[in-house]
Write a structure and sequence with these properties.
alpha/beta; D-Maltodextrin-Binding Protein, domain 2; six-stranded mixed beta sheet; four-stranded mixed beta sheet; elongated; binds adenosine-5'-triphosphate; ATP-binding; transmembrane helix; transmembrane
């Protein structure tokens, strides 16, 4: 008996058959097709990692029927479904859903026309069951009364728990039922359900199937359902059995069982797989046939190269009739396959010729065809429609609910930046204290118990002791008797350095003072205070050196005053007057504060955005929203509104802590500083978005944002002046998103500059360029991913 794969007999209820109309989009058939797929090729990956998932797949789903899509794990079912709902694009081939190509404005898909239940739960754990349904009601802009009645109806039908239960507290099976309810909620024309009955008990599975049958019989809705429970698919009108990206057969369950004379669909599927396996092996062994096939395929491949080139082919051929694409081959009942491209005709005998062999190639003449003119591709890469009010309000409300429901997130969002700013102010930029220095004073007499007696008058006696009293008390003086002993303590890390006075320090110092220019070398050496430092810590080294020099200046001034001389007589003739901007001894905290403010806000925005979008995509929530007709721009705007208020709080807290609590001075326009910080938050959001579009999961997103942290911080001049970088690196540094804005904030804070100064407006310009650049990059990556994954 000859099998017709495409024009299969579908058990359409009698009351539906009458309503089927002639449909030109289905070619010469008198039935209407809900879904038609022709010659679908879909690959994942690029270059050497490219794998073909759908291989010239054809599928015909009659309107108002239930279509059970069966196949082993990984054969491409989900991929096919995601193409049907417009979430992925084919590399070549055609799809028509409800008469149009998915993704086109006239198709309504993504949108209200389709109800999609992805394999993942795709539910918000912090929503109650009722809130979940109401949220999707808002997305679809459904009437309140309808929403209420659906909530009640579906709760009863699917035996859902109480509406005020949080989704995250439901059992796995209950969550799947809620997910199913979401797909049914708006009563769509087409239901696409990816394994809806996984984890559902047999009784409920039965009621789910009953409901699906009612949807198709009473309302004429088309249902495509994938399942691993092959036998439950007996209730479908048509079954498509899929293997390795191809449909092995497509027919009604009863016909399949009868034709194969097997007791179960599982047996039929196994038989088909074995036949298919046998054919593959024969194809490998059958050189002449292989050559013929290869030759044919090569000719076809030249015409239909897989991948992006092929899309170009598609477009150029878009006016042609798709009926020509079904010409690959046919199987006859005896397992013979004939190539049919009108000129080539090759035959081979199947090893399984004594068993009825099902066709896995299309019969050309009876295949419903897709008239491309009716489903014109309108793949406008950056087509953006205006956001709709109802969807936007639903998304914004959802975002706020998710934040305020989750106390941990709320605290994290608002208090982490404030905590970081506090920790920064408490820990960075302060003078070190309790630094031990070894003092070896050979002027002290051991016979007098090494007592440090000195006078405060003009007499030159025990000047070493007098000098030591002028050292800052940040330095703790530890006396040692000999230099080697003190050096040993230095090596043990007991002291930061050793200060040594010679035997005749005071006497030599006096001679040196009196000799002026004629001081001898020995005199200079004898009057010197020698210091050995542990220079492994540059900052401490610098501080101690500074304090020793300052101490000496004060000591000398004191001596000069007591002798009635000019106090500054001993100063070197290089004097630092009042600074042009800022004060003398500006603290390191002041230098770092602008960089810190910006980096806190920037990196919070990066990690929050990347985390939010990756986890939303990972959980299938993004797909579900997009299939429901939500536009990416609406998701972005919704997120932006939400993130805006979060950022306002974060920035306010950080500025209050920096300026009010820790007294970081701001001499300029504070509002301008806040504005630049806010822009940097937006740059961070866009960068987070880019990370989310590039990364598959939370871990890789986290790694990428962490990997970007240090290079950005280092090259942005937060902790070290950019002037200290090699010249070629400076150019890179200035093109980084944070460098100019940090410099702008520094100028506003410390110099009081306004937006008319280059250094200030450069920060605004650079931030704006980065925002637009990153958004464009996101769009490009998203478009690329749609085709490559
Ligand atoms: N984004 C992707 N990038 C690369 N390969 C992918 C991607 N998504 C799926 N695949 C691969 O494509 C193949 C088909 O996957 P798909 O999810 O469509 O299978 P499936 O038939 O739905 O399987 P299951 O029944 O287990 O859900 C698998 O080998 C899978 O590893």
């Amino acid at each position: 008996m000859k099998r017709e794969v495409v024009n299969s007999r579908v058990l359409v209820p009698s009351n539906r058959l009458g309503s089927e109309m002639n449909d030109t989009s289905a070619g010469n058939n008198s039935v209407q097709y809900g879904v038609l797929v022709r010659n679908a090729i879909k690959t994942y990956g690029v270059g050497s990692r490219r794998t073909t998932i759908l291989e010239k797949l054809n599928m015909s789903v009659k309107k108002g029927s239930i279509y059970g899509l069966l196949g082993a794990s990984g054969c491409g079912k989900t991929t096919l479904l995601s193409c049907l709902v417009g979430r992925r694009s084919l590399n070549s081939g055609d799809i028509q859903v409800l008469g149009h190509e998915p993704g086109t404005p006239e198709s309504g898909i993504p949108g209200k026309q389709v109800g999609y239940m992805p394999q993942e739960l795709a539910l918000y754990g912090h929503f109650t069951l009722r809130e979940t349904l109401i949220y999707f009601g808002r997305i679809y802009n459904l009437e309140k009364a309808f929403v209420e009645s659906q909530v009640e109806f579906l709760s009863k039908l699917l035996d859902l728990p109480m509406g005020d239960r949080y989704v995250q507290t439901l059992s796995g099976g209950q969550q799947r039922r809620v997910s199913f309810a979401v797909a049914l909620f708006h009563e769509p024309e087409l239901l696409i359900l990816d394994e809806p009955t996984v984890g559902v008990d047999p009784l409920l599975r039965h009621s789910i199937w009953n409901h699906l049958i009612r949807q198709s019989v009473d309302h004429g809705r088309t249902v495509i359902v994938t399942t691993h429970y092959i036998e439950e698919a007996r209730q479908a009108n048509t079954i498509g059995m899929m293997r390795s990206g191809r449909l092995l057969t497509e027919d009604s369950p009863d016909d399949l069982l009868r034709d194969y004379n097997l007791p179960s669909l599982e047996n039929v599927f196994l038989k088909l797989c074995m036949n298919d396996e046998g054919k593959s092996q024969i194809e490998q062994r059958s050189e002449p046939l292989a050559n013929a096939v290869m030759g044919y395929t090569a000719t076809r491949a030249q015409q239909h190269p897989i991948g992006h080139d092929n899309m170009a082919y598609d477009r150029s051929a878009s006016q042609s009739d798709v009926s020509e694409i079904g010409i690959d081959c046919q199987y006859n009942k005896n397992g013979n396959r004939s190539l049919n491209n009108n000129s080539v005709n090759t035959q081979f005998n199947s090893a399984t010729s004594n068993s009825p062999t099902r066709p896995n190639c299309k019969e050309v003449n009876n295949s419903p065809i897709i008239h491309k003119a009716a489903s014109k591709r309108s793949r406008n890469v950056f087509r953006i429609r205006l956001p709709s009010y109802h969807r936007l309000s639903a998304l914004i409300l959802r975002n706020y609910l998710l934040i305020f429901r989750n106390l941990g997130i709320l605290v994290f969002l608002y208090f982490l930046p404030a905590l970081q700013a506090t920790i920064f102010n408490l820990t960075l930029g302060h003078e070190p204290r309790g630094l031990k220095m070894g003092i070896v004073n050979d002027e002290l007499n051991s016979s007098q118990d090494r007592v440090c007696n000195y006078t405060k008058n003009c007499s030159y006696s025990m000047l070493s002791c007098r000098y030591l009293t002028f050292l800052k008390d940040n330095i703790i003086q530890i006396p040692f008797e000999t230099v080697p002993e003190a050096m040993e303590a230095g090596k043990r890390n007991d002291v930061w350095g050793v200060i040594h006075f010679g035997h005749n320090f005071t006497k030599e110092f006096e001679i040196r003072q009196n000799s002026g220019d004629s001081a001898s070398f020995e005199n200079i050496i004898g009057s010197q205070i020698s210091v050995n430092m542990d220079s492994t810590n540059q900052q401490i080294d610098i501080f101690i050196e500074k304090w020793l020099l300052e101490g000496f200046g004060d000591f000398f001034k004191d001596l000069m005053i007591s002798c009635g001389h000019e106090p500054d007589a001993g100063n070197i003739p290089l004097v630092f007057m009042d600074p042009v901007y800022g004060q003398k001894d500006t603290s390191y905290t002041e230098f770092m504060a602008p960089g810190l403010i910006i980096s806190i806000i920037y990196f919070m925005a990066v990690s929050l955005t990347a985390g939010a979008f990756v986890s939303e995509r990972k959980q299938g929530l993004l797909d579900r929203s997009l299939v429901a007709g939500v536009q990416m721009i609406e998701i972005l705007v919704g997120y932006l509104v939400n993130q805006f208020s979060v950022m306002v709080g974060q920035i306010a807290l950080v500025f209050i802590i920096m300026i009010l609590a820790f007294g970081v001075p701001c001499h300029g326009n504070l509002a301008l500083g806040v504005f630049i910080t806010f822009l940097q938050g937006l740059v961070g959001m866009c960068f987070g978005l880019l990370i989310a579009t590039v990364c598959e999961n939370e871990i890789s997103a986290l790694c990428l944002s962490m990997a970007s942290f240090l290079p950005f911080v280092i090259t942005s001049g937060i902790c070290w002046p950019i002037e200290g970088m090699p010249f070629y690196l400076r150019t890179i540094s200035y093109s980084m998103p944070m460098t100019y804005p940090i410099e702008s904030l520094r100028c506003i804070f410390s110099k009081g500059w306004g937006v008319n100064e280059f250094d200030v407006y450069a920060g605004i310009v650079i931030s704006t360029i980065w925002i637009f650049g990153l958004i464009i990059l996101c769009l490009i990556v998203t478009r690329f991913r749609k085709y490559s994954s």
